[in-house]
Amino acid sequence: MSLLDVDGLVKEFGGLRALDDLSVSVESGELVGVMGPNGAGKTTFFNCVSGVVDPDGGRVTFDSDDVTGDAPESLAQAGMVRTFQLTRELETMTVRDNVRLAATDQPGERTIPALARTDAMEQRERAVRERADELIEAFELDHLADEYSSNLSGGQRKLLELARALMLDPALLLLDEPFAGVNPTLTNDIADRIRDLNDEGMT
Asked: Which CATH class is domain 4-89+170-199?
């Protein structure tokens, strides 16, 4: 079975049918693009697949499980991660902290482990720091690591959002308009990063 199967997806907004019996399958390791003019329903499709909005009909199957209507956080934990057309970085935090914050299973976020400061918690925090620094360097944001994300250009924010998504180690990465509002130089850079990720096995 495909990693992602979308069967007969329907979504309506009032009298407008944004998605009309849409079906698509994505195999593990594929690089697939969704194309269409503004208003064609691309973001609505992503929103329905990733749990941001519930479809009015159809089914979404991810890794053999029916995940139709599941919450985005549940899907992210299962390995389906998406970015947004408009980036959603935390502007009053640094680039480094934005990336670190995306990591799951951080014991220090819970009161008792944070107070206890166990060896396991410190090991996990060290792993998060190292992985975040690896991604920041891989996306050539290391010279901006201590900058507030509000100071980044549109293209740099796209790279930051991609790095944050990868902190979740996804099986399926959905990129909504990854080149929107990005200058040609950074567009090529982002495209190269996407191809590199796919060459490494990312779907």
From this structure: alpha beta
